[in-house]
Amino acid sequence: MMILWVLLLAGLFLVMMRVGCGAHMAHAGHQDAPHPAGHIHGPTDHGAPPAESAVDPVCGMPVAVDQGYAEVYQGRLLRFCSRRCLDTFDAAPQRYAA
After folding, report:
1. pLDDT means per 10 residues in the chain (98 residues)?
2. What secondary structure letter does DSSP report for 27?
3. d(Cα 15, Cα 8) in Å, to the nearest integer?
4. Nearest-5° angle of CA 49, CA 56, CA 64?
5. Taking the complete model, does pTM exceed 0.85, yes or no?
6. Which helix or strand (DSSP H or E) is residue 34 part of?
7. How far apart are CA 15 and CA 57, in angstroms?
């Protein structure tokens, strides 16, 4: 009986990490430190970003048009992968808007 509970909890944990709260946390590690130049975020960085995505001007990560944060700067819509990147941009927009 105890093994069934352990398996049930492990399955719940796996589901939460894939689609629940953990899915949002899985890529959050880059938010705790500044982005070094040339920082790579994953397999989508090896080529052009997908057609329906934008590039975060702070860290260079592709951001799907229906995810992340957005801000209009000088008439241009910019997308950000995280709140930290958005706040970094807001602190010095002239540094990142090119």
Report:
1. 86 69 47 45 49 86 90 92 93 87
2. T
3. 11
4. 50
5. no
6. none
7. 32
Q: Own/partner pairs for 58-67, CB < 8 Å, 24+ apart?
A: 58/85, 58/88, 58/89, 58/96, 59/30, 59/35, 59/85, 60/35, 61/30, 61/85
| Pair (53, 90) in one structural domain | yes
- Cβ contact 78:54 at 8 Å: yes
Count of the separate structural domains present in the chain: 2
Q: In this structure, are 62 and 93 located in the same domain?
A: yes
pLDDT for the residue numbered 21: 52
Which residue shows structure tokens 């352990």? Answer: 6
Q: What is the pLDDT of residue 9?
A: 82
pLDDT at position 23 is: 46
Indicate the DSSP class of residue 79.
E
H or E element in which residue 72 lies: strand 69-73
